[in-house]
Amino acid sequence: MPKKIVLTTAGIVLSLALSACSGGSDNSLDKVSYDLKDATAAPSVSFATPFSVGKTETHLISEGDGDSVKDGDTLLIQATIFDGKEAKELGTTYESKPLMILVGEKLKENAPELYSMLTEHKVGSSFSYSTNVVSSESGASPSTAPADSPTNVEVYTVVQKLLPEATGKALDKKDWNKALESFDIADSGAGVIKLKDDRGDAPKELVTQDLIEGSGRTVESTDQVYVKYEGVRWEDGKSFDGNYNGDPLDISLGGVIKGWKEGLSGHKVGSRVLLIIPPELAYGEKPASGAPSGALVFVVDILGAMPTPEAVIAQQKAAEEAHQKAEESKSDETPAPAESKTEAPTDNEPTPEASTPEESPAQ
Questions:
Q1: Three-state DSSP class for 176?
Q2: Burial class of 62 by CB neighbour count within 10 A (0 to 12, 13 to 18, 19+)
Q3: Which secondary-structure segment (H or E) carries 119?
């Protein structure tokens, strides 16, 4: 498994694995040698060890040419941490997914240096960070490491700013799919889908339609996507999940139900997409506990997208192959007694993607 970088409960600052070893030298981040590798892989660094700073320090490595950053923005940031004692890599987001950080008062209060670095520079910028402040896992106030203790060197690149909402060319409501009566954002911020009473029989095929057509990156079937969404059951129109009034959801399309993977692929960032999904591309008629049954309807705002790391794709592929082998093994077993044949057929069981709760939009 790839080494992961962990956020504090405040969702602000990377955990700092500081050593309490003495005998460090007086270092500065501007003396570190950086190879950013065009932000396509974890960077490498070179510095005299042990590395030690006597306060929190930041250093701009390169200025980006993207959008400016302001309060309220949600950023995707690649991060790699290096041990100040031996200059070894401790963890990187390049093997999993970038950090998603909200720029706001909480960040300003808990990590003012990080806040300043982000708001004073543009998307695409890379910078380093080191501190002698030790975070407490128990929730106690941070403390200062002993003098000359090695301090980590952390390297960040701001790779993307998420859209706050879908934006682009809106489809005239008269051209919406005949099953959709309306979609609105309530005063609470929640998404509200209303289906027509005369919408007819449940769909047998996947329906996908841009209610708003964005102009950003075209989403690929293996992408990591960042979305806000609302989901209702076709049968009764009742909502079962959604996050329009919360933070964006980050998912790899290789790890969700097929209706999302097939339905969002080919659409552009900035789009608001209607998905009408038949049971076999959702969770089936008799899904696992907690998942909605039958045909489902989603409205999804695509706020950002980027390629999923190959390591994650390989894990998803291995999980899917294992599921398929398990299903093939079941089919080779002795047939069940006649009275049990009233159960839903195998092809209506949850898809391999739906068995991964943390990636499932319905959980």
A1: coil
A2: middle
A3: helix 112-119
Question: Which of these ranges, 175-179, 283-287, 359-363, has the smallest mean pLDDT?
Answer: 359-363
Residues facing residue 231 across a β-bridge: 241, 298
Q: Which two three-digit tokens encode residue 269? A: 């960032």
Residue 342 has pLDDT above 50, yes or no: no
CB 134 within 8 A of CB 55: no
- What pLDDT was estimated at residue 344? 33
**Alpha-carbon gap, residue 224 to 295, rounded angstroms:** 25
With CA atoms as reference, report the closest residue to 42 among 81, 11, 15. 81
The answer to whether 244 touches 165, Cβ cutoff 8 Å, is no
| Predicted TM-score of the model (pTM) | 0.81
Q: First and final CA of the chain: distance in angstroms? A: 24
Q: Which residues contact 132 (CB under 8 A, 6 or more apart)?
A: 18, 52, 53, 54, 55, 56, 144, 145, 149, 151
For residue 79, list its beta bridge partners. Answer: 156
**What is the Cα–Cα distance from 273 to 253, expressed in whole angstroms?**
15
Distance CA 290, CA 177 (A): 28
The confidence score (pLDDT) of residue 300 equals: 98
Each residue's pLDDT tens digit, 190-201: 999 999 999 999
Instruction: Decide if pLDDT at 322 tops 90.
Output: no
| pLDDT above 90: residue 138 | no
The pLDDT of residue 26 is 56
The CA distance from 228 to 245, in Å, is 9
List beta partners, residue 128: 59, 155
